[in-house]
Design a protein that fits this description.
This protein has 83 residues and is mainly alpha-helical. The protein is built from 4 helices and no strands. The chain has helices at 2-21, 34-46, 51-58, 62-76. It is elongated, with a radius of gyration of 21 Å. The relative contact order is 0.09.
Amino acid sequence: MLSQLGRELAAALADVDSCCAFGGVRGKQPKLNPRQETHLVALHAAGEHTSAELAELFGVARSTVYRAIERAASARAPDPRRD
């Protein structure tokens, strides 16, 4: 029983290794490409649209809008803890 479990685990690890070798394990694709994300952040900065409106306009969830805005803000501002 234990040897069977070991064989199954080894086979699963071999599958993961072969998948990684061919670039198969990359994670989930982003909902917005970099150009769309930049446009979304620019529209938000202009202050003419709410987060809900931007989410509907781009066809994403509000959480995606908030994350895009947060990424843009953290990219602009230096980390205060690094002093």
